[in-house]
């Protein structure tokens, strides 16, 4: 017989699902997110999983987690700390307990709390029995046993039966937070359509978890988070990698070019390759190369042939692609390089996020090899930033580096489907006729004749009659493109290539400052995924009665024309970054303005709560000085 739990309204909730890397926590979190998005809440997620393919079971390095922040208002981060921790084993509890505030809710599977498993993670006593969790609201349930019992009618091995515990937990949480269930039931039916027994068992476990919430007296309250107000339109849940893939497809189609991806799989960028490989229906051609160098080389070759060449990677792959990017600078061909940054150096922490490749993007090539650099600020913004990268690459005949990071790549948020017809066309402007005369006075094609406004060179598709030409990595003579070792020509071409990139500043918007009071003396300037923590922290600072201004950079090379003026308008400029101050160093050197670097390099997004406290201290200290 079911009991009637009181339904308590909430504005926001942060839930973290945590378990062994084989417990299906990413799937559980993703399904809870999908139902929450369909319900109409604003969402932000933070998947966090081990780099090892399969760490030893029940160990701390093997813990995988998925954090979801959902609310009835606009949110910009996945939350600093969870309100609810769902822990599927002792290791998951120990690895995440320090993040849970006092009074937080713990839903824990008791099945694996044996002496052996406790000893494996260094616990001499069972925290579920020794009172050490007295500061939390603990629901200790045998989720594995309950799930196994729910699927006993199916002919499953003990191991397969226990694997349904994540669906039991999902059902329970769906009841507890009043989530829809139809989408998950449809998902399970489709995912396991070819394995009817597994399908039916997972559905049974999910329904049993939901029913358990209705019938047990362990939960006296269930919660309801109302939908968030949003602009009218159609929405879908999207990750940064998926948005990047869609942006690249859109950019190529707006230019009327075939999209060619030459890439090598690397965490956390591989999902872009996976998605684009599925889009042959949209004319996308993908090539999974044998290494990073082959990937970028094939993309340059595709651009030479008249397609839009793209390559995707992370920091270690960028190091390998450096020489080839220089080749694209010299040949002045469109190329989009997507760097989904991760923690380094070397192999570093492959599944953790970081922003430490900015200097590499700006300067990590031999010779004077200027390249435009853009950075996306959110998962959904990866779509718009990818289109902008395509536009600049095609319009200015240059490689463009787009920076994302692991947090954006794997995190998800609602995305309002754009009106594709409203996105401006990109004109490739292929050369179709001769554009010069040779020394003998005959008509000729000079591949390095330039558009006087953009300084982009002429781009001719090989095979166009009369436009035969050669290009390569050796220095080019101005206009003709012939091999040249002339010192004055090298100086001229070097300065021209730089002037072409510098000139893009005319074609990008000024940086916009958000300062509601108009009286702020402190400016917080961000780039990339620091947008979320900065925005959220600034909201809290303003609620405290203090004034603070914020601004965000998408274009990192060239930077907006008014940036120097904006920096000089404030008494203090704070630049939060997930590195040791790379943008702060660049701004201080370029604009001769003192910059306060706020650095965090933990493999996690910057904490909005810590940033809030530190900004309040900065503002108050500045006030006391006067």
Automatic annotation (TrEMBL):
InterPro entries: 2-oxoacid/accept_OxRdtase_asu, Pyruvate:ferred/Flavod_OxRd, Pyrv/ketoisovalerate_OxRed_cat, Pyrv_Fd/Flavodoxin_OxRdtase_N, Pyrv_flavodox_OxRed_cen, THDP-binding, Transketo_C/PFOR_II. One of its GO terms (biological process) is response to oxidative stress. It holds the Pfam family POR_N. One of its GO terms (molecular function) is oxidoreductase activity, acting on the aldehyde or oxo group of donors. It comes from the Bacteria. This is 2-oxoglutarate ferredoxin oxidoreductase subunit alpha. It comes from Tessaracoccus lapidicaptus.
């Amino acid at each position: 017989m079911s009991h009637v739990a009181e339904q308590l309204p909430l504005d926001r909730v942060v839930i973290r699902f945590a378990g062994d890397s084989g417990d299906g926590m990413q799937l559980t979190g993703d399904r809870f997110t999908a139902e929450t998005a369909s319900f109409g809440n604003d969402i932000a997620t933070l998947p966090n999983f081990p780099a090892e393919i399969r760490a030893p079971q029940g160990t701390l390095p093997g813990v995988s987690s998925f954090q979801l922040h959902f609310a009835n208002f606009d949110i910009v981060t996945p939350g600093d700390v969870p309100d609810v921790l769902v822990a599927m084993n002792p290791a998951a509890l120990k690895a995440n307990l320090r993040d849970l505030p006092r009074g937080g809710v713990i839903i824990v599977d008791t099945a694996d709390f044996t002496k052996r498993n406790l000893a494996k993670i260094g616990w001499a006593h069972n925290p579920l029995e020794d009172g050490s969790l007295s500061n939390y609201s603990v629901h200790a349930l045998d989720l594995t046993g309950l799930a196994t019992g729910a699927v006993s009618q199916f002919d499953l091995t003990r191991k397969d039966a226990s694997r349904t515990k994540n669906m039991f937990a999902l059902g329970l949480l769906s009841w507890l937070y009043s989530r829809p269930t139809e989408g998950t039931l449809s998902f399970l039916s489709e995912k396991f359509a070819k394995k009817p027994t597994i399908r039916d068992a997972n559905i049974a476990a999910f329904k049993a978890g939901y029913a358990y919430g209705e019938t047990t007296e362990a939960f006296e309250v269930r919660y309801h988070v109302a939908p968030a107000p949003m602009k009218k339109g159609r929405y879908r849940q999207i990750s940064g990698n998926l948005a990047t893939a869609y942006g690249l497809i859109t950019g190529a189609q707006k230019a009327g070019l075939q999209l060619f991806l030459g890439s090598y799989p690397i965490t956390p960028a591989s999902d872009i390759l996976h998605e684009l490989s599925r889009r042959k229906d949209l004319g996308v051609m993908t090539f999974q190369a044998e290494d990073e160098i082959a990937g970028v080389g094939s993309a340059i070759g595709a651009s030479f042939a008249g397609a839009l060449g793209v390559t995707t990677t992370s920091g270690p792959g960028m190091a390998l692609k450096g020489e080839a990017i220089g080749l694209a600078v010299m040949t002045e061909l469109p190329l989009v390089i997507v760097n989904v940054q991760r923690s380094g150096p070397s192999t570093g922490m492959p599944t953790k996020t970081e922003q430490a490749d900015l200097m590499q993007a700006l300067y990590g090539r031999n010779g004077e090899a200027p390249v435009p650099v853009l950075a996306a600020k959110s998962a959904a913004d990866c779509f718009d930033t990818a289109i902008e990268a395509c536009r600049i690459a095609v319009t200015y005949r240059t490689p463009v580096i787009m920076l994302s990071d692991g947090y954006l790549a794997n995190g998800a948020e609602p995305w309002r489907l754009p009106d594709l017809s409203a996105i401006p066309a990109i004109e490739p402007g292929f050369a179709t006729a001769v554009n010069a005369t040779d020394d003998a006075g005959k008509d000729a094609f000079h591949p390095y004749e330039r558009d006087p406004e953009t300084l982009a060179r002429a781009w001719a598709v090989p095979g166009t009659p009369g436009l035969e030409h050669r290009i390569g990595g050796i220095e080019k003579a101005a206009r003709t493109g012939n091999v040249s070792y002339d010192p004055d020509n090298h100086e001229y071409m070097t300065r021209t290539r730089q002037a072409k990139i510098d000139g893009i500043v005319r074609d990008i918007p000024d940086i916009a400052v958000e300062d509601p009071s108009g009286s702020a003396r402190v400016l917080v300037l961000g780039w990339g995924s620091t947008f979320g923590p900065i925005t959220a922290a600034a909201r809290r600072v303003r609620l405290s009665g203090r004034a603070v201004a914020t601004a965000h950079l998408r274009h990192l090379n060239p930077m907006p024309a008014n940036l120097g003026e904006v920096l000089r308008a404030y008494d203090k400029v704070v630049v939060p970054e997930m590195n040791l101050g790379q943008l702060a160093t660049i701004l201080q050197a370029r604009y001769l303005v003192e910059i306060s670097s706020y650095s965090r390099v933990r493999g996690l997004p910057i904490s909005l709560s810590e940033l809030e406290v530190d900004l309040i201290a900065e503002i108050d200290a500045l006030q006391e000085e006067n």
